[in-house]
Amino acid sequence: MAIPSFQTRQDERVIRSGPVQSRLEPTPPATPTPVVEMCGLTMQWGSKPVLDNVSLSMQPGERIAVVGPSGAGKSTVLRLLAGLQLPTAGELRLFGETQEYLRLDQRRPPDVRLVFQNPALLASLTVEENVGFLLMRLGRMNPLQIRERVQQCLEAVGLNDVADKYPGQLSGGMQKRVSFARALIDDPDRDEGSMPLLLYDEPTAGLDPVASTRIEDLIVKTTTVARGCSVVVSHVHSTIERSAERIVMLYGGRFQWDGTVEEYRVTDNPYVVQFRTGNLRGPMQPSDH
Ligand SMILES: Nc1ncnc2c1ncn2[C@@H]1O[C@H](COP(=O)(O)OP(=O)(O)OP(=O)(O)O)[C@@H](O)[C@H]1O
Ligand SMILES: [Mg+2]
């Protein structure tokens, strides 16, 4: 609830007026460290930057959708967050730590999990081995414990009796859900209270509407179950509106608009209007690329 400004000022006067009243000073709420801080990030391959001095901050628990036309740089944003690429200029902080190296070169990598557009499961491993891959590699749990943990994650995404199957024996939608289960699985040594950053690139592309709804709910659920933050890249309106609370529109190397889902539905920002309505006329033109 918003506090009227006069009341705030009055409170400040009380606090400042002397040592006795200062005992009345309420404990200021601890400002949480943002999960993501992009500060003047630039990503450039050719003559024109794909991301041109962009800044964005994400708070713990936020669910964001990054939208924009093909080639706008959405996957580039995810690859930077996943540590698969380093920016040409600017600073990226994740959980308060400046990211200077690629993820593979980091000794204590931040907990960032990327769900690719393509489920990217290893065909020669069973579903259980795919989902439990990280835990097996860490070697901190015995096979029985891993099996139990995998089973819980598969159940969380609505998959039963598939642990011993190979990815090739499942439908595309089921494979997608296995990739979600893989993102859900936790390192048991994860600090209590820590939260992962979950990244989803086009999670519902090519799925039927009902399967899409399941995946959208799963994104919300996965983020909640893993107590994390999520960034979803999608062109699909239902996915954007159901899986995120905040939307950012990327075009021409910049975040052109940033607002809530409710604001997105009604804003007259010309970029959002063109994207929302699929109009050929508007500020976004293919010749700009
Ligand atoms: N490794 C790379 N080397 C050179 N150019 C690249 C590289 N990766 C991306 N690009 C360029 O950056 C631009 C943005 O690519 P990106 O994949 O981020 O777009 P996108 O918004 O995800 O598009 P789509 O919706 O089609 O997936 C494109 O012009 C692409 O050609
Ligand atoms: Mg992409």
Question: Would you give an account of this structure?
Answer:
The chain is an alpha/beta fold and 289 residues long. The protein has a domain at 32-111 and 227-289: 3-Layer(aba) Sandwich (Rossmann fold), CATH 3.40.50.300. The protein has helices at 5-16, 74-81, 127-131, 133-138, 143-156, 172-184, 209-225, 237-243, 261-266, 270-277; strands at residues 36-44, 49-58, 63-67, 89-94, 97-98, 112-115, 197-201, 229-233, 246-251, 254-260. The radius of gyration is 22 Å and the shape is globular. The N and C termini lie far apart (44 Å). The site of adenosine-5'-triphosphate has 10 residues, from α2.
Compile the SSE list and pairings:
Layout (H helix, E strand, L loop, with lengths): L4 H12 L19 E9 L4 E10 L4 E5 L6 H8 L7 E6 L2 E2 L13 E4 L11 H5 L1 H6 L4 H14 L15 H13 L12 E5 L7 H17 L3 E5 L3 H7 L2 E6 L2 E7 H6 L3 H8 L12
Parallel strand pairs: 3-8, 3-9, 6-7, 7-8
Antiparallel strand pairs: 1-2, 1-4, 4-5, 9-10
Bound molecules: adenosine-5'-triphosphate and magnesium ion.
State the CATH class of the domain at 32-111 and 227-289: Alpha Beta
**Mean pLDDT, nearest integer?**
85
Using the coordinates shown, work out and report the CATH topology of the domain at 32-111 and 227-289. Answer: Rossmann fold
Topology order in helix (H) and strand (E) letters: HEEEHEEEHHHHEHEHEEHH
C-alpha end-to-end distance: 44 Å
- Per CATH, the architecture of the domain at 32-111 and 227-289 is 3-Layer(aba) Sandwich
